Amino acid sequence: MLERAHPDRGQRAELRDELLTLHARILLRMPIFELALIGAIGWIVLPDIALSVFLAWAGIALAVECARAATARWALVRLPADPPPHLHQVFVALDGAAGLATGAAALLFLPHIPLLSQALLETTLYTVAGAGVAVAVSSRRMLAAYSSLVLMGAATAWSMAHPERAAVVIALTAVYWLFLIGVSGDSERLLRRSIDIRRQRDEVLRQLERRNQEMQEVAARAERAALTRARVLAAVSHDLRQPLHALSAYSAVLLANPSARTLQEAGHNIDSLVRALGEILGELFDLSRLSTGGYRLQHEPFALDRLVAGVCAEFASSAAAKGLTLASHLAPVELIGDASAIGRIVRNLLDNAIKYTERGQVGVTLSHVSGEARLEVSDTGRGIAADEHGRIFEEFYQIDGPGGPPQGVGLGLSIVKHLCDLMRARIELDSSIGEGTRFTVTLPSARAGSGTAAMLRSIQEGRKSWRGARVYVVDDDAAVLASMQALLRLWGFEVHCAASAAEANALLAQRGRPNLMLIDLRLPHGQDGAAVAARACADHGAFQVLIVTGESAESALHSAREHGYTLLQKPVPFDTLYAAVSAAMQPTA
Fold first, then answer.
1. pLDDT at 482 (0 to 100)
2. Does residue 244 register a pLDDT over 60?
3. Any residues with CB less than 8 A from the CB of 244 and at least 6 apart, and which?
4. 452-588 is classed in which CATH architecture?
5. What's the confidence (pLDDT) of residue 322?
6. What is the 3 state secondary structure string of 445-481?
């Protein structure tokens, strides 16, 4: 049957909609065909049949065809987008009614007409039943409903009129009907195949369209990249030529045997120019690493308020030189993240604020809100026009400085945006002309800092919960071992030290696994501390590990990150070390 035509539901639905649409279009023309059929049958049976009987039959048969046509017109408005429910069953029922009305002609007329007329009437009805294959358009249900009733009426009437040939007529009629159903099945398979081909064609076209769109996007990205490269080269060329030109002039001054005062002034200016060149190259390097995914974030606990306070101290003299007040309000906030990257964000925002503010103050505020750190850098400068808000984070995009051309190379805010995206931080801008500017950076994974006094209280409490917990310190520096042993014992730990991987393995074999191991990344004889700790966890059971290292090279730090260990960069501040140890000991607290 139609519903079992194919296991794919999408194709079954498409086949059903296609069949119903074709059938409905054919049914629109069926009243005309029915009029022709009524005329042919009238020519055969009249005047042997009473006119009133013939007209009654003709009216019923035409009314059924008109009902089919009206239903088809109603359905076509909704097909194929919104097919009416059970429409197929409705068409099957109407086809059955049409077959019954047509087949009734044999029962009504055949017993009352001459033999030749009977033969003509039977031939006409059998031909009409065969024509049902085209009308049913590959639906075996529709064909069965229509043709079976037409043939049943014709075969029954002939058998009643000629009982001696009833068996032969019924047998031949059954064979003919099965043949029609078989033809309809072949047509159904052909229709299904055509739909398969059309779907494959449509899918190929969709794939080609997608690939074409992808190619267009690739081409657009390549074009944007080319324009960006051209813009970058132009901007870098300009910004490098300026200090290089000035250095060339100063080199001529130095060759002219200047006075001591001129020499001192030239030396000071050359130092400033070299610093400017270094800043340009450093920002280009940072931007390259961020744009190509070469920057790897660190995840370590640190005191954000102390980091921000340190950056504010760096810029205090720059602000004072311009007569600006640098005000900071920093709540204690502890953060797990990349201290270096966040420091760069704060420096770039502060540097911009001071550059573009001529009078008033620059403010830095740090707060803790719902598990996030909120850093605000505001100024009383001239502000940024609303139509430039979306562009200031672009590479090399600059706005004019107060009373003059742009200052810097236009990479600072672009680097800030790249770093914020990398850390999943949010950066927001609130600025308008004449009202100053405020940048707000919201950083995840923060908690309210405890402050020194609260931390000391926490340490006192930690002594109780950590008492008896075993810590191994592995480092090849005797001073580091002694200081760490003293500090950790003050915190309540049982501390054992090892100066090499061999000593650490001996300690593990003698005393078993610790609760926590603090291990240097670079150990004697080229041993990798992270690998040593990982093997120890595999051999003796898992335990917490902190990597404490002075290494900064990316290749050296890869091993620690690969094992998922927390990295602490020497020198480790007191509060950062305490926060890291607290976090490591949390599962066993």
1. 86
2. yes
3. 277
4. 3-Layer(aba) Sandwich (3.40)
5. 85
6. CEEECCHHHHHHHHHHHHHHHHCCCEEEEECCCHHHH
How many Cβ atoms from other residues are within 10 Å of residue 495's Cβ? 22
Token look-up 């800043």 returns 279
- Total number of residues shown for the chain: 589
Exposed e or buried b per residue across 192-225, where buried means at least 16 C-beta atoms within 10 angstroms of its C-beta = beebeeeeeeeeeeeeeeeeeeeeeeeeeeeeee
Strand 446-448, strand 333-337: pairing: antiparallel
Cα separation, 296 vs 334, whole angstroms: 21
pLDDT on residue 388: 67
Query: 335-364, pLDDT tens digit by residue?
Result: 877 787 788 888 888 888 888 888 888 889
Domain at 300-448: CATH code? 3.30.565.10
Q: Kindly state the tokens that stand for 157.
A: 């009437």
Residue span(s) of the chain under CATH 3.30.565.10 come to: 300-448
Please, where in the chain does CATH 3.40.50.2300 lie? 452-588
pTM (predicted TM-score): 0.39
Contacts of residue 38, Cβ cutoff 8 Å, sequence gap at least 6: 58, 61, 62
Query: Which 3 state secondary structure label does DSSP give 511?
Result: helix
Residue type, 554: E
Say which residues have a Cβ less than 8 Å from residue 262's Cβ, sequence separation at least 6: 253
Instruction: Give the largest CA-CA distance in the chain.
Output: 142
DSSP H stretches of helix in 1-139 = 9-27, 30-45, 51-78, 87-109, 115-136
**Residue 498, SS3?**
strand
Q: What is the pLDDT of residues 363-400, one digit of tens each?
A: 899 988 877 888 999 888 877 777 666 656 665 555 55
- Closest to 521 in 3D by CA, of 580, 484, 477: 477
From edge to edge, which strands make up the β-sheet containing 446-448?
300-303, 333-337, 446-448
Burial of 434 (0-12, 13-18, 19+ CB in 10 A): exposed
CB 411 within 8 A of CB 347: no
* CA dist., res. 550 & res. 241, Å (int): 38
60 vs 143, higher pLDDT: 60
